[in-house]
User: Fold D-alanyl-D-alanine dipeptidase from Desulforamulus aquiferis.
Amino acid sequence: MKAKFTFLVALVFFIVGYSPDTFGIFNNTPSLKPFPVIGQQKEPALVKIKELDDSFIIDLKYATTDNFTGKKIYSQDICLIHRNTAQKLISAHKEFKQLGYRIKIYDAYRPYSAQRILYDAAENKSFLADPEKGSNHNRGAAVDITLVDEKGDELPMPSMFDEFSKKSRIDYYNTTRELINNRELLGRVMIKHGFKRIGNEWWHFDDTKAKQYPLLDIPFEDFMDPRPSGLLSELQSITYPTYLCTRCRVGRFTFC
Ligand SMILES: [Zn+2]
Assistant:
């Protein structure tokens, strides 16, 4: 009976000129939409934050093995950020400095290719943006940060960075007043300067305008000085495989 029904539906689709899979009726394959990921800067959207304000402390965790994957994900230790987001972060940093603190940056711009590597590596996917949608980190418009005191020591927070537990939530209150105050100070000042918090990561802040900026897959090497070439470039393409077809932006390989 089911086979007969399926045959009839397929016949109708055939007659009207559609493949049954057009609507994803017959299998569970997710619908793949064109996915604009930009591989080169048409305008200088990304900037090196240190060149604008060298008082930030940079500790890019994914450029080291000190992250939840235990592997070095970024090929270069270069902290990049969208230029408009940078202005907001610098103004927040000014306020923190007046209070005797400085911002330590764990992550900022993350190439789209790296998002997929992290997503595939994570056991708990709820802490990472689905690569099908992209992350605001891929836009250069999100930062993972904490605060350090005048001696450079991190302020204690309710959880470690990238700790995938309820202690990382911004509504976790089963801890000391000091830890809550530190987390809320970070959140309050960032919101004042044009950022949004997310529920499950106290360290993550999205630029409120993030969605206005495109997803990017520009390799860090484009920001090296001087830019490498030849054999090194080939090695980089291994480090940063192109997951999306460069023609249709839908397929999973360089050319689908
Ligand atoms: Zn983040």
